[in-house]
Amino acid sequence: GRFIRPASAVYLGAVIEYLLAEVLELAGNCARDNKRKIIKPRHIMMAVEMDDELKPLFSDVIMPGSGVVPGVHTCLMGKRDQDSFRGWARQGLSKTRVGAKE
Question: Rounded to whole angstroms, what are the CA distances from 40 to 7, 25, 44, 47, 51?
Fold first, then answer.
C-alpha cells in the first residue's frame, strides 16, 4: 500500500473546515434574506445553487427537506389573455391529428 503522511489529514481537515465555513456563511445570508434566524436545509440548498463554485461540488447531492429551486420556464412567461387556454383540453396538441382527413 501507499504511505499517507500525517500532515495530509491536517490538510484535509483544513479544506473541509473552509468548505463548511463557506457554505454556512452563504446559507446564513440566505436565511437572513428570508427573515429567518435558523438555517434550514432549504437555505443551504439555495445558497449552493446560487453559487457558481459550489454548485458543481453538490451536483449529485440530494438534500432532504430542501425543496426545489424556484423558477418559471420562459415559455410560460409570454403574454396570455383570458381566452388563451379556453377549450385547451379538447384541442389536439399538434396541428395534424392522427387519422384526420385533410
Answer: 34, 13, 7, 11, 17
